[in-house]
Design a protein that fits this description.
The chain has 114 residues and is mainly beta. It contains no helices and eleven strands. The protein is globular, with a radius of gyration of 13 Å.
């Protein structure tokens, strides 16, 4: 089970940190990451981190603004989001993938608005 938290309303230029806590699986063994889905748009990948903590990828539209990290002791993955823009408004979902299984969280709403 994956449970996200940390979403909310933030002004443009602000920051938020999302958390995704796992239970029942050991994130050490999974590729983990974040997607987002805005109303009327397709789900899009934001960032992922492999089983090697140095294997990190970002979508171009978040490079330099977002940072993914993992705390193995807490079995939790984070998404630090800085310089937020109105177009970042979406439901943010975390996932954990180990072929052939993929687990999804329920999502947390992020709204960027003045």
């Amino acid at each position: 089970q994956l449970v996200e938290s940390g979403g909310g309303l933030v002004q443009p230029g602000g920051s938020l940190t999302l958390s995704c806590a796992a239970s029942g699986i050991n994130l050490d063994h999974y590729q983990i990451g974040w997607f987002r889905q805005a109303p009327g748009k397709e789900r899009e990948g934001i960032s992922c981190i492999g089983t090697s903590d140095t294997d990190i990828k970002y979508a171009d539209f978040v490079k330099g603004r977002f940072a993914i990290s993992k705390d193995n002791d807490k079995n939790t993955v984070y998404l630090q989001m800085n310089s937020l823009k109105p177009e970042d408004t979406a439901v943010y979902l975390c996932y954990a993938y180990l072929r052939p299984r993929i687990y999804w969280g329920q999502g947390t709403q992020v709204t960027v608005s003045s």
